[in-house]
Each structure stands twice: as C-alpha cells, then as structure tokens.
Amino acid sequence: MAENKKTETKVYLKIHDFDCSIEEITALIGIEPSKAGQKGDLLPKRNIELHRKFSSWVLESGVDIHASVDEHVDALINTITPRIKILKNLIATYNGELTIVVYTHSEYNIGMYIDKVKLGILLDLGVSLDIDIYFLNDTES
Prior knowledge:
Elements (H helix, E strand, L loop, with lengths): L7 E9 L5 H8 L5 E3 L18 E5 L8 H12 L3 H10 L1 E10 L11 H10 L2 E8 L6
Parallel strand pairs: 4-5
Antiparallel strand pairs: 1-3, 1-4, 2-3
C-alpha cells in the first residue's frame, strides 16, 4: 500500500461465541462465510501455538478495498437483508458485530457516514460496532 498510498477499507459482519458447528450457522443463514473458525482450531501465522478461544463466522462486504465505508456498509446490508430475521435470532443467542477497518496514509481526517435507515437496520439486528482506523506512515503497508 505504501506505493499508491490509497486508503483501504474492510467491513464485515461477524457472528461469534456459538457452540454449534460453522456448518450449522452457514446452513441457517444460507450464505457461505468469507472466513470462519471453530473454537479450538490452531491459529495460523503465529510464532507460538495458539488455539482459537471462540468460534466465529465472518461475512465480508465483497466490495473493493478502495471503496468508501458507505459503499461497504450498503453492500453488506443488501446481502443480509433477505436473511435479517435469522441473523437477528442468531445474534440474540450468540454475539454479533459489525466491524469497520480502515488503513490510511492520509494526513487528513477520515470520515464515514451511515444513514439513519441503515443504522436502524444495524441497531435492530443487535450487533455491536467495532471501528478501527490505522494511520500508516510511508514505511507501513
């Protein structure tokens, strides 16, 4: 990223802390996760042996990483809206989170906007919101 200095964004919905299999969650929702991990699985790319402390099912927005947060949230909401009832039930039973991650070289403020309709959908869904913004210098990518 250091070469083009563009901002990169990832937005995803995560369901975690469930005690059933990932396949059961996937079958209920009817969408293949972008990523998933079962409690007890070995965590990859670690210098020491670490095992996953909880299960997670992750659905990414599917939008280009250079798109705005708004575009990512729109795409994710459009994907989950037909399944909102089952997702709401799963999130009420387990834990749900909307995660927004932004990596930027910008020297200026980073902004994001979620209109009240989409915010209402997310509130009704019962997800927590996790926003991480990483300001990178020229040596980081």
